Each structure stands twice: as structure tokens, then as C-alpha cells.
């Protein structure tokens, strides 16, 4: 009897491969199919469609990485259209509440001994319904207990490898706090760049320092500019102090009055 093992993503494939090797040891009438087993040179699409049509039990292997896989949704839809087929999902390191529609409508099996035992019962029942020889309850119990440790170890190794590569999921608050810190740092940097830096006139222009002059430098993200600003409107030559402004007529009159007095 055909059992179709659907997968998408590396961890999902490893899970499907584990069931592919383990199921025939428990129920000998089972003939598992996994797409990686399609021979070279065969028309891959046609072989896959034929296998889906002949399948009596479909097991879709779900992991965190492939919950949104369009390919698995396609396989689930094709299996649902197959007459009298059982469609199940196996959740590796997932809970049933993690699954959304349309996959949420299928019967889920989690990585627990009792739940996988129920899945084996379903497969054994499908074998009986297909007219092939199924196992008695007692015989099935003995075989399951014999081979369960093997499957358990395989699946456990896959989960542990998944935990090694998975990045911890950060809380929304942590992400927002990090964004806020980055924005504030950028604002501080911008204010520092736009701040006016006062540099003595002589250091900037090579002219003797004089308190009448100073250089102001503005730094912006797009330009750097220097401007010599005089505290008085009169320029001086190198080494000289500020000159007195030219005398006006009013000043001459005042001077004459002072001299006459």
C-alpha cells in the first residue's frame, strides 16, 4: 500500500527520510514514496502525479521553515482529492496551534510516542481497507515497541540539529528598543556635525592671532565650509592690530571744539 511522504526544506526532508526507512519495518505491507527516490531520466512531474493518485495515506512533514510552503499546499490539495485517502501532518518541533489553514484542518501528529502509535494504527487500518494484510493489535504492539527507539533517536537528532542553527526569536519590545537606540545615536551624530566649531583665526588661515578676528567652521553632512568673520569691519595686515576707522566730519568738529576749549 502506498504511503506518500511530503516534504519541503532540509529538516522536513530528513524527517520524511526517517519515516521512509522506518515504516516498512513496522508494517511490511507499506510501500513508502518520497520524491527523492524518483529514478533519473523519469518524467518527474508525471511520476509524482501518478504516486499521488495511488496513495492511500499521505504524511506531510512540517517544520518551522516550511509552514508557508506552496509546494506542500499543492501536495495536500492533491492528496485531499484522492478517493479514500488519509491525509495527516507530522509536526516536528511544532504544536498544532502553530499551524494555520488550510493545513490546520488535517489531523496532526506530534513527536510523541503515543501520538505516533495512533498514526501507525491509522496506516494499519488503511492497509486493511485496501484489501492487503494488516497486523493484529498484539503483533503491531510488539513490532512498534521494538522499532520505536530507532525512530525516536532519528527524530531527536533532527530536532537537535534544528536547535543549533535556529536563531532565537526576539521579542517585539527588544527590536523596538534597538531601533530607538539607533535613531537616537544618529540624531546625536547629526547634532555634532552641525555644531559650530570656533577655531582661532591664525590656526585656520596662518595669520597672527588677534582678538579682533575668529574663524567659524560649519560642518554639515553635505559640505564643509570655513568663513573668516571679523569682529570689526576693518581688515588688518599681517602682524598689525585693527586700524582706527577714517575720521568723519563730525569727528573733526568734535576735535576742533576740544582743542579750542
How would you explain this protein's 3D organization?
InterPro entries: Toll_tir_struct_dom_sf. This is TIR domain-containing protein. Helix 1 runs antiparallel to helix 5 (about 135-165). Helices cover about 50% and strands about 15% of the residues. The radius of gyration is 41 Å and the shape is elongated. It has two domains: about 1-165, Response regulator (Rossmann fold, 3-Layer(aba) Sandwich), CATH 3.40.50; about 175-240, no CATH class. It has eight helices and eight strands. It has helices spanning about 10-25, 45-55, 70-80, 115-130, 135-165, 170-195, 200-205, 250-260, and strands at about 1-5, 30-35, 55-60, 85-90, 105-110, 195-200, 215-220, 225-230. The strands form two sheets. It has a five-stranded parallel beta sheet, sandwiched between helices. Strands 6-7-8 form a three-stranded antiparallel beta sheet. The protein starts with a strand and ends with a helix. With about 260 residues, it is α/β, with parallel strands linked by helices.
Concise synopsis of the structure shown:
This protein has eight helices and eight strands.
Essential attributes:
48% helix, 3-stranded antiparallel sheet, 261 residues, 8 strands, 5-stranded parallel sheet, alpha/beta, 8 helices
Amino acid at each position: 500500500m502506498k504511503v506518500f511522504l511530503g516534504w519541503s526544506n532540509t529538516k522536513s526532508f530528513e524527517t520524511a527520510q526517517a519515516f521512509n526507512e522506518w515504516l516498512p519495518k513496522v508494517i511490511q505491507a507499506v510501500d513508502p514514496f518520497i520524491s527523492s527516490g524518483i529514478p533519473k531520466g523519469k518524467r518527474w512531474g508525471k511520476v509524482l502525479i501518478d504516486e499521488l493518485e495511488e496513495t492511500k495515506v499521505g504524511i506531510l512533514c512540517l517544520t518551522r521553515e516550511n509552514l508557508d510552503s506552496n509546494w506542500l499546499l499543492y501536495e495536500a490539495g492533491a492528496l485531499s482529492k484522492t478517493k479514500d485517502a488519509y491525509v495527516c501532518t507530522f509536526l516536528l518541533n511544532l504544536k498544532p496551534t502553530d499551524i494555520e489553514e488550510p493545513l490546520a484542518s488535517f489531523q496532526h501528529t506530534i513527536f510523541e510516542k503515543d501520538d505516533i502509535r495512533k498514526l501507525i494504527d491509522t496506516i494499519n487500518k488503511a492497509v486493511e481497507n485496501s484489501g492487503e494484510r494488516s497486523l493484529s493489535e498484539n503483533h503491531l504492539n510488539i513490532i512498534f515497541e521494538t522499532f520505536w527507539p530507532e525512530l525516536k533517536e532519528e527524530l531527536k537528532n533532527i530536532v537537535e540539529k534544528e536547535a543549533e542553527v535556529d536563531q532565537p526569536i526576539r521579542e517585539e519590545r527588544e527590536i523596538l528598543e534597538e531601533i530607538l537606540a539607533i535613531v537616537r545615536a544618529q540624531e546625536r551624530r547629526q547634532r555634532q556635525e552641525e555644531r559650530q566649531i570656533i577655531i582661532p583665526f591664525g590656526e585656520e588661515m596662518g595669520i597672527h592671532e588677534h582678538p579682533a578676528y575668529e574663524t567659524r567652521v560649519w560642518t554639515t553632512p553635505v559640505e564643509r565650509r570655513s568663513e573668516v568673520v571679523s569682529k570689526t569691519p576693518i581688515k588688518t595686515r599681517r602682524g598689525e592690530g585693527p586700524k582706527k576707522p577714517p575720521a568723519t566730519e563730525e569727528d573733526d568738529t568734535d576735535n576742533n571744539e576740544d582743542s579750542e576749549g
